[in-house]
Amino acid sequence: MIGKISGIIEYRGTDHVLIDVRGVGYIVYVSDRVKAGLPTNGEAVALFTDLLVQETNLQLFGFNSLVEKEWHRLLMTVQGIGAKASMAILGTLGDEGVSRAIALGDWNAIAKAKGVGPKTAQKVILDLKDKAPAVMAMGGTLAENLESDVLEPVEAPARKRVAAPKANPAQPEALSALGNLGYAPGDAAGAVAEALGAQPDLQTAGLIRAALKLLAPKE
């Protein structure tokens, strides 16, 4: 399994790029969002990858973060969602957008992706809702992980009581998302308050992710 590619971009097509890794060229399929953020030809690039193995074909897909890669793998477990539809969803929403849509049960956001109808979008929400907390708590981009030289989620810190922070507009939506994911109101409110106490200016996606890390079972 090829889990990560680091090399030089040789060229880019409509839905893929060719990355030269020490003289070997790898065709890596990427979403429009990922492609737009890549450096120019001849420059270095690093992407997380997932290898799709079919009877007559091998395809390598590239992602900026572990969360995006994991959503791609999970999206393809939903009936009616193949690699093309998964990349369309991620290209439209990004990893944080997918996390937010599934946490809030917003199937309309999923349905905005090309080739994804309302029924399929609703099935995505139903099938992946229970898996959202673990994926959203992962967080981190490739650059952030490479800086620490670790490709694993950071261990959550010990819980502690904190004073209620100044109101943040992301707070109600984060509480709603955690409620939709099955967390008790008191637990959700405590985790959100603690997360905002540490980082008062968190946006919705970051706040949900931080709260999920605090709510994760401690080993």
From TrEMBL:
Domain III: where is this region? 165-219
Q: Which family does it belong to?
A: Belongs to the RuvA family.
Organism from which the protein derives: Yoonia ponticola
Q: HAMAP family, alphabetically?
A: DNA_HJ_migration_RuvA (MF_00031)
Q: Can you quote a single GO CC term?
A: Holliday junction resolvase complex
Report if keyword DNA repair is assigned. yes
State the function annotated in the UniProt record.
Answer: The RuvA-RuvB-RuvC complex processes Holliday junction (HJ) DNA during genetic recombination and DNA repair, while the RuvA-RuvB complex plays an important role in the rescue of blocked DNA replication forks via replication fork reversal (RFR). RuvA specifically binds to HJ cruciform DNA, conferring on it an open structure. The RuvB hexamer acts as an ATP-dependent pump, pulling dsDNA into and through the RuvAB complex. HJ branch migration allows RuvC to scan DNA until it finds its consensus sequence, where it cleaves and resolves the cruciform DNA.
* Residues covered by region (Domain I): 1-64
> What is the protein name for this chain?
Holliday junction branch migration complex subunit RuvA
Localization annotation: Cytoplasm
Provide any one GO MF term from the record.
four-way junction helicase activity
DNA helicase Holliday junction RuvA type domain: from which residue to which, for each copy?
1-62
Keyword annotations for this protein?
ATP-binding, Cytoplasm, DNA damage, DNA recombination, DNA repair, DNA-binding, Helicase, Hydrolase, Nucleotide-binding
Q: Where is each Holliday junction DNA helicase RuvA C-terminal domain found? A: 170-216
Q: Which domain of life is it from?
A: Bacteria
Q: How does it assemble?
A: Homotetramer. Forms an RuvA(8)-RuvB(12)-Holliday junction (HJ) complex. HJ DNA is sandwiched between 2 RuvA tetramers; dsDNA enters through RuvA and exits via RuvB. An RuvB hexamer assembles on each DNA strand where it exits the tetramer. Each RuvB hexamer is contacted by two RuvA subunits (via domain III) on 2 adjacent RuvB subunits; this complex drives branch migration. In the full resolvosome a probable DNA-RuvA(4)-RuvB(12)-RuvC(2) complex forms which resolves the HJ.
Whichever gene encodes this chain, its name is ruvA
Give the GO terms filed under biological process for this record: DNA recombination; DNA repair
* UniProt xrefs under InterPro entries: DNA_helicase_Holl-junc_RuvA_I, NA-bd_OB-fold, RuvA, RuvA_2-like, RuvA_C, RuvA_C_sf
